[in-house]
C-alpha cells in the first residue's frame, strides 16, 4: 500500500475486509463441503466474487488517480522550470555575458558561474524528464536553446580567462626583465641578464596574433586596448635587450669586459704570492719588455686574439716579436705553446692555484668557459620547462558534467583547489627562484633542495654518495 492515497489505505486496512481477503476462500470451501445439501444456489460464492472484484476495481481507480496526479506534478514542475529560465535564469545568464577587465574579477565571475551552471543543470534535468514523458517538443526546444546559450557563455568566459592570464604573464615577464636589466649594471652582469632574458620563452609574435584574434572574437574594446599596451611593453623590453647585446658586442663593450677580467685577475694575484719555480719564469733573459701585455695574459686560443686584432696591430709594426724564456725554450707570442696559446698564461694561472695545467698548475680558461656555458644552458632549459609547466597549469579546466555525484563534485572541487595552489607556488616562488639562478648556475641545486620534502631528504641522505 506504499504510494496509495490515504483514503484508499484506510479502506484496505479495515479489519473486516482484511479478514475476508485472508480467510474468505477457506470459509467458502468449508461451507461447500459441510453444507452442500443445505446451500441453495451460488449465493455465498457470488457475494464473495463481487466483493473481491470491487476491491480490485477500487485499486485500479486509485492507481489511475495516482498516475494523473504525478502527471500534473510533472507538468507543474516543467512550468516552474520554464518560468525560472525565462525570469531569474535569464537575468543571471545575461550578467555573465559582460566579462570583467581583470584576472581577479574574471576568477570571481567564474566561481559564480560554476554555481549557476550547477543549478541550471539540475533544473534542466528535471524538466527533460517531464518533457520526455509528455513528449512536449515546444518545451524541449526552449530547453535546448537555453542550454546552447549557457555553453556559449561558458566558452566566452574561458577564453576571456585565457586572454587575461596571457596579459598577466606578459606583464610579469616585462616587469621581471626590466628589474633584472636595471639592477644588473654595466659589464658582464648586464650581458648575462640580457642573455638569460633572451633565452626565456617570451611571448612570440604568433601568440600575440592569436590573442588579438581572441580579443576580436570576444568583441571587447578593453581587451584590445590591453593587448596593445602589453604588446608595446614587450617590444620595448625586446628593444632594450637588443640594445644591451649590441653594446656588449661593440669594441667599447669588449674593452670593458677585458678591464673587468684584468681587475679580477689582479685581485687574485694580490692574494697569492708566486712560488720560486714560477718566479724564475718572470726573469728576463734578453733585453726588451719583461712581460707580455695584460690583454694577452688570460686569452684562450681563437677567442680574444681574433677580437683584439686591431689593438695589437700598432705594436706589431716595426717591432720584433716579444719572447719569453721558459727553462731554456724561447717562445714568441705568435707561436702556439699549448692549448692556452700564451707562455705567460701558465704564470698567471699558476698564481691562481688551478689544478690541471700542462706543468701541473693552472686551469685553462677555455675549459672554465665551456663548463659555465653548459651550466647556463641547463639552467635556461630548466627555466623554459618550468614556464611551460606553469602555462599548462594556467589553462582553463572544463566544468564537470551533471552526471557527477555530490561526493565526486566535492573531490573535483578539492582537486581544483590543489591545482590552483600548485600553480601559485610554481608561478610565484619556484619559477622566480629558477630565473634568479640564470646568472649563478651553481645555485640551482640549492633552489631544488629548498623545496624537497623531509621524507625525500631522508631518502637522499641514505645513499652512499662519494
TrEMBL record:
Q: Which domain of life is it from?
A: Eukaryota
Its transmembrane ranges are: none
Stretches assigned to coiled coil: none
Q: Where is the composition biased (Low complexity)?
A: 261-295
Query: Which region is the signal sequence?
Result: none
Chain segments carrying region Disordered = 243-319
**Alphabetized InterPro entries for the sequence:** DBL_dom_sf, Rho_GEF_signaling-related
PANTHER family given in the database record = RHO GUANINE NUCLEOTIDE EXCHANGE FACTOR 40, RHO GUANINE NUCLEOTIDE EXCHANGE FACTOR-RELATED
Q: What is this protein called?
A: DH domain-containing protein
Species of origin:
Marmota monax
